Amino acid sequence: MTAEEQVFGGVRLALLGVVAIIQLGLGLRPLLTYEYGPGAWPAYGALALVTVACAPWVVRRRPLPVPLVVAGTVTVVTASVVATSSIPPDAHFGPPHWSFGLVSWHLLVLLADRVPWLLGALGAHIGGDLVLFALAGPPDRTEVGAAGVVVLGVTSFQLGLLVLIRVLLRTARQAAEVAAAEERAATRVALAEQWAQDLRAGFAGGLGTTLPLLADLADGVADPRAEETRRRCAFAATQLRRLFAEHDEVPDPLVHEVAACVDVAERRGLAVSLAVSGGAVDVPTDVRRALTAPVAAALSAARERARVSLLRTGDEVRLAVIADAGVPVHAESGQVEVRCDAYGERTRTEARWRTS
């Protein structure tokens, strides 16, 4: 339930309480005091029935069903005509005219959320009473003035209340929009902070292999001509390239990151083939890192050629590379299983992640 619906539910409940109090406290007393025609009590009962029929929805703060609104409006306007027809000819808009103000409150309960309908029903109610007032006999100036005061006083108060209700609803809607905007802003800030944290963690992991290499090169500990140093440089470049690819917005992140590793190897002059089988699978970022790390290590150690294959099924994701040289890759703790086998001068490295 929206904030606007909650506010309107409370307003309608208050209006229903006003109707019940007026009908029992102010409407019943004239019926017991003055002489009326035969239609007065049926009209009173019809209005009470409308109040009772609306109560289950109003108490639960639910919108009134359209059939109930239509039937209730027709009943209330008809009861207004019948009740006004039953009062003495000289009692229009006086104390015996109990139905005039009461009917307007009933219409507010029924149609406060449908302003055009409400204005039309109020016009029919007031117009019908004025017609019956005129048909009862030629009124003098005093009667016309008294009628005008009553009509203006009752309608201005109730229309003012309607304006107040609309202002409350608009304020509630604006408050809800502001709260929703603040919540969206807070969500964006939280996502941005999480993204920045993941980015820092990812770069920290990538630099964890790069900084020691740069320090060894700067201190002269590592010989740039040595095979091991070139392998370390290739591995660091592959890890950084994969790290950059990790933050790209692409439909298939895993394939994109594997392709980034292959691209670095090809730039080194390596002949690399990539085969992908199966549809895209939602793989968490940390799992993608664990899957591509051993493959990056194997590609970094390859001399001339390598073949990378990615197989995705409903149960698992398998990423393997066969290279003409390699380094032993040990299984890491976590969800990814890593296996490395040597076949003569070739090494096969496979990382496997089970989705369930």
Describe the strand arrangement of the main beta sheet, using strand numbers. 1-2-3-5-4
Number of helices: 9
Beta-strand percentage?
Answer: 5-15%
> Order of helices and strands, N to C?
HHHHHHHHEHEEEE
First-residue to last-residue Cα separation? 38 Å
> What is the tally of beta strands?
5
| Rg on CA atoms, Å | 41 Å
Helix content: 55-70%
Structural class: alpha+beta
**Ranges with pLDDT <50 over ≥5 residues?**
none
Basic shape: rod-shaped
Could you explain how this protein is built, in words?
With about 350 residues, this protein is of the alpha+beta class. About 65% of the residues lie in helices and about 10% in strands. The protein is built from nine helices and five strands. The protein has a five-stranded mixed sheet with strand order 1-2-3-5-4, covered by helices on one side. β1, α9 (about 285-300) and β2 form a beta-alpha-beta unit. α2 runs parallel beside α4 and α3 runs antiparallel to α4 (about 100-110). The protein is rod-shaped and about 120 Å long. The mean pLDDT is about 80.
